């Protein structure tokens, strides 16, 4: 009888351990799956915080880490009870190898009864998600003291703010950026390699890239975490996008020879790449480019100003 009782107790303990193990592994899986989702919410909310205030974060990595820790604490608390203890410690928030991601390192610990499971995670939080956009805060910081930028749809409209910002830095031909626009949310350009931008007739790929507000990898562009701090350039592998001048009206007339001439605005202006426009190294860092007309609708020219280095990067005609 004693042997039978011992066997029954052992079997009961085994069954309980199995149930506890399933609970522990299930909660650990939940933590691993939800941390990137919660992290993306933190990144979006921090970008909106900066956009609405125009004020940069003093230390984006620390502030994102602290907010993510607070939200993970709340998430873990729903599992605690009935003998279960759950903790997710955020160890580090920093740049990922892919500039379209932010890397998070964490340690998840789940225990129940005599069972304890601990796992160290390194996860990439994507900045790119069509149904959950993350916004670029940098233009709102740079233009805050010059009238500010506004949002219309999925574009940033600068009005006179970008022109005034460039003028205050002594940049030549700043007038070209009156009523300029640029992308609002971070979307990765599908034209890879980037020379495909110039491969099509009438620069259709370049037009599609600009119309969709795509971003590109850039050694000179600012990473997302440094954008939250208002830095136009940084030492990390970053991203860049085009800032598009307002279309200019074509004026057509015939000269004495009967030839049709076309009058446009300035042939040179600051290069239309955001890390050039928002360069932190002084006016010399904001260098000029020559006009490139990538589309004409019969009444207006749609154009960029690009230096030869960026023209080569995107497979566009050099000058």
Which key phrases capture this entry?
single chain, 319 residues, disordered N terminus
Description:
The chain has 319 residues and is an alpha+beta fold. Helix content is 33%, strand content 25%. The protein is built from eight helices and 14 strands. Strands 9-14-13-12 form a four-stranded antiparallel beta sheet. Strands 1-2-3 form a three-stranded antiparallel beta sheet. The N terminus is likely disordered.
Which H/E pattern describes the elements? HHEEEHEEHEHEHEEEEEHEEH
What fraction strand?
25-35%
Outline: elongated
Question: What is the percent of helical residues?
Answer: 25-40%
Briefly note the structural class of the backbone: alpha+beta
Rounded average pLDDT: 90
Element layout with pairings:
Elements: H1 2-53, H2 60-77, E1 84-95, E2 101-112, E3 115-126, H3 138-142, E4 150-152, E5 155-157, H4 161-168, E6 181-183, H5 204-212, E7 216-218, H6 224-227, E8 238-240, E9 248-249, E10 251-254, E11 260-263, E12 268-270, H7 274-277, E13 288-296, E14 300-306, H8 308-313
Helix pairs in contact: 1-2
């Amino acid at each position: 009888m004693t042997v039978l009782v011992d066997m029954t107790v052992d079997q009961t303990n085994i069954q309980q351990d199995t149930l506890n193990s399933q609970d522990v592994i299930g909660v650990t899986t939940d933590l691993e799956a939800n941390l990137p989702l919660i992290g993306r919410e933190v990144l979006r909310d921090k970008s909106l915080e900066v956009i609405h205030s125009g004020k940069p974060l003093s230390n984006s990595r620390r502030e994102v880490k602290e907010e993510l820790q607070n939200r993970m604490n709340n998430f873990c608390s729903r599992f605690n009870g009935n003998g279960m203890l759950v903790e997710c410690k955020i160890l580090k928030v920093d740049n990922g190898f892919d500039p379209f991601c932010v890397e998070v390192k964490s340690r998840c610990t789940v225990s129940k009864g005599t069972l304890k499971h601990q796992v160290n995670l390194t996860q990439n939080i994507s900045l790119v998600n069509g149904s959950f956009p993350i916004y670029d805060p940098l233009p709102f910081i740079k233009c805050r003291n010059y009238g500010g930028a506004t949002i219309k749809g999925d574009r940033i409209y600068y009005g006179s703010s970008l022109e005034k910002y460039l003028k205050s830095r002594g940049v030549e031909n700043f007038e070209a950026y009156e009523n300029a626009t640029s992308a609002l949310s971070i979307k990765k350009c599908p034209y890879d390699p980037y020379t495909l931008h110039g491969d099509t007739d009438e620069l259709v790929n370049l037009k599609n890239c600009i119309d969709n507000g795509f971003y590109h990898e850039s050694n000179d562009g600012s990473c997302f975490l440094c954008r939250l701090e208002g830095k136009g350039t940084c030492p990390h592998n970053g991203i860049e996008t085009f800032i598009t001048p307002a279309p200019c009206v074509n004026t057509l007339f015939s000269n004495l020879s009967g030839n049709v001439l076309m009058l446009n605005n300035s042939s040179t202006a600051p290069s239309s790449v955001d890390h050039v426009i928002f360069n932190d190294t002084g006016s010399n860092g904001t260098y000029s480019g020559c006009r490139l007309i990538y589309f004409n609708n019969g009444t207006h020219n749609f154009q960029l100003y690009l230096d030869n280095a960026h023209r080569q990067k995107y497979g566009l005609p050099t000058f």
